[in-house]
Structures are given as C-alpha cells and as structure tokens.
Amino acid sequence: MTNYDPGLYYDELFGGRDYPAEHSALIRQRLAGLNFGDLLRRSQDAERELYNLGITFLVYSNKDAVDRILPFDIIPRVISAKEWAHLEAGITQRVTALNLFLHDIYHDQKILKDGVIPADLVLGNGCFRPQMVGLDVPFDTYIHIMGTDLVRDREGTFRVLEDNGRVPSGVSYVVENRHMMQRVFPDLMQDIGIRPVDNYGHKLLDAMMEIAPQDVADPQVVLLSPGSYNSAYFEHIFLAREMGVPLVEGRDLVVENDRVYMKTTNGLARVDSIYRRIDDAFLDPKAFNPDSMLGVPGIMEAYRKGNVALANAVGTGVADDKAIYCYVPRMIKYYLDQEAIIPNVDTRICREADALQYTLDNLDKLVVKPVGEAGGYGITIGPRASKEELADCRAKLLADPSNYISQPVVDLSVCPTVTDDGIDPRHVDLRPFAITGKNTWVLPGGLTRVALKKGTLIVNSSQGGGSKDTWVLQDGVLQDGSQEGSAS
C-alpha cells in the first residue's frame, strides 16, 4: 500500500490530512506486510465462497445475470469507539424523532398545525395511510427496523443522506461479511478488539416479541416475504433462520375472526407478530391494492384490532420520503428540543419555487433525485451528466417539480479496495441498522457499500456496487497500544 493515494478525499483507513486515523494503525501495519498477490487470492476465495453459499441478490434489469453475488472487498472499513458512540447517539435520536413524527401525524397532527412541515407534503404523500389515523401501536413505535444511510465528506463529517423506514435491506450482508472475514482473513482480525454483529437476529426477535399482543404469553413470530423472486429473498431466508422463526408468504397465512393464522401440517396456528418484507400496497388486498396476490386478505383489520403486530408499522413510508427527509432536523428540534447530532446533507425541495429555480440554474453542479425512487435509480449527477442527460433532467423538473429534490455533490469518503490493478481508493457510504421495540439498539457497524467502478459515486448493489466488513473497535485502547484520545 506504499503507493496508495486517496487524493483530497477523507480516507476511512488512513483518516484526513489533519486528523490521521490512529485507531487503525495496527490494521494498516498488518495490511502493509502482505503482498498484493495474497490479497487478490483471498479476495477471489471470498467471492467464490459467497457464490457457493448462495449469498446473492436479484437484478431484474439484467436479463443475462438475474441472480448475482454482492461483490465483497476484503479490506475493512474501521470505525473508532469514540466515533461510533457519536453515530449511535445520532441514529437513536433520529429514530426517536421519526417515531414521534409518525405518531403525531396519525393522531393530533400538531407538527402540521404548527406549520413546521407543510401539511400537504404529508397528507398528500402517497405513503400516508388514512387507515392508520387514530390507531395506537405498542410503545408508539412505528419504525422497528431502520436503515440510515450516512456519508462522510472531505472534512470527515458524517451526514445523513437518507432514511429507510419501510423495509430496509442489507443487514444480512453485514453479518455474512463478518463471517467471511473470519474465514479468509483471521490473521488481520487477531487481537484487534472488534465489536460483534452476530446477535442481530436475537435482538430483532426480542423486539418482535415485545410488540406482540400483551395477552399472549409465548408469541409466535413469523417473517412475511413476497417470495423467491424478490431481490432480497436471500436476506429473508437468512433473517428467519437467525431469529429461529418460520418464513412465510401471503398464501401461508389466513385471517379468521380478525386473527391471523399460519397453515401448518397440524392445522392452523395463531400468529402474533409479523416482520413483513412486503410494502403497504401489497399487504392486504382488502385495504390497499385489490389486485395484490402477495398479501393476506383481512390482515389490516386484525392489525387495527390489536390482534397482530406488524413491523414496520403500516404508513411508515411517509417518514422516509426524500422530501420529508429535509425536515427531520426540524422534527428533532420540535419533538426533542435538540439539535441534530448528525446533520443532513444540504437539500432543496424542488416543489418550492426558489429551490426549483436554484436547481435549474445550477443543474450541472447538483445531484437531482426523485423523491420516491430507491436503489440509485433516476438520479442525475450534474457534473458527470451529458448535455442530453441534463436536458432530460431539466424537462422532468419542469414537468413535475414536486417529485424531485436536489443536493450538492458530496465528495464521499474513500477506503482502500482491492482492484485488478492494485489497491485503489473507492468511494463508500454506511448504512447502520437500528432495532426499536420499547427501546432502541443500534447494530455496531452496518453495511459499508463501496462503488467498485472507478470514479463513480453510486454505491448501490443494483448499480454495480459491492460491500465491505465494517469494524467498530471496542472501547479503551487504540491499535497502536495507546489510550484512545481526541483523534479518531
């Protein structure tokens, strides 16, 4: 790694120019002692094992390779104990505020009446569910599983890029990546002091049992999947196994007398708590899309009567809308009387006339995103777009400004990555996962996604990105043997 050069970007293994990453000194030393051929061999071994284990995701747009492994890079991303404590506090604060927001908009709507957030932005949102108005949920928790996408800028400051509060995916790769590193790179991990991630399934099961109807002594939990053609089906299998609960599809469940039952070889068995990986629209054809073949007819009425728990709650999509995202710092101030611990990326809502004009005037300098898309689709990165792409984006903005937000291009931090040409910097982001029942627990680490194509900023797996293991170091001692101090 002697010729490695991150340029002007903040580097996750080396730190910034003014703030070297002292906590990763031993890891860097061990990596420097390995030749590139050995790293490349271990990397190939890891990818071969991923394939053999069936750790895959589906890509519908690629006719030639429907089922693909998520590319894995063996050089880890390392986070100090002090820095993680900051992120953990910020994520917990954000989840708390979003749950307060969801309870409010489905009850008294004080934040709308006080003009903190435009009422039409919420009530006219396609993810707002009138069926949830007045419905109480256990512990007032709507978002039980949250994935918060974080990026780090050139100054080393973490910022929230977006919230994922409907059906966030990717946590299976967090756990499997750790298992992979333990198999192919045990010498790098030895005596480092890395916080574990393999208790996620137990924590999720605990939360699912907490929110179950209180009159049930031993709740039956299931994971509801749309089926094997879903892009995250591997994760559904993985999480059901980790929790030790049945994996079911809509056809496996039935509602009788406003209670949910699972079909078994011994007859019907009551179901009390459901971790659903199905969007609202397909959950219940009686309540939402009547053409849905994926959901369970009548499940919404059972939910409304408190006979079954659903995670995440119906109607949480309002909270992870990209336009609503802009107001989360105001929510934190409104509900908690606190400043946001982790700031947002500066964002303009194009439904507002001045924001639209600014976006149009600076289109070649901004990133423009549709508010309802995910997976990196529909994004225009101004500085890297062609004249034709900019013209197309301009036309879409003018035709439907409410569907777009714009943000400055964030110079995402980089991390050393094994490529065919050597060890090179590649841009990364981070998706930590939080579980909330009565209280919130944040998985120490998260999914580090890496943009494997040179120069690209889009890290999504559907756009060719891969992943890395994320190491959160334990409290106390830096990797050079000294006590952890201010530099991290």
Could you characterize what this model shows?
- By secondary structure, this protein is of the alpha+beta class.
- The chain has two domains: 384 residues, no CATH class; 61 residues, 2-Layer Sandwich (Dna Ligase, domain 1), CATH 3.30.1490.270.
- The protein has 15 helices and 22 strands.
- The strands form six sheets. A five-stranded mixed β-sheet has the order 3-22-21-18-17. It has a four-stranded antiparallel β-sheet with strand order 5-4-19-20.
- A hairpin with a 2-residue loop joins strand 17 and strand 18.
- Helix 3 packs across helix 13 and helix 8 packs across helix 9.
Our count of domains comes out at 2
- Which structural class do you get from the secondary structure elements? alpha+beta
Largest sheet: 5 strands, mixed
Total helical segments: 15
Instruction: Please tell me how large the radius of gyration is.
Output: 23 Å
The low-pLDDT segments are 477-488
Give the end-to-end Cα distance, rounded to a whole number of Å.
21 Å
Measured as a percent range, the helix fraction is: 25-40%
Give me the count of strands.
Answer: 22
If you average the pLDDT, what whole number results?
91
How are the strands of the biggest sheet laid out side by side? 3-22-21-18-17
Using the alpha-carbon principal axes, give the shape: globular
Strand content: 15-25%
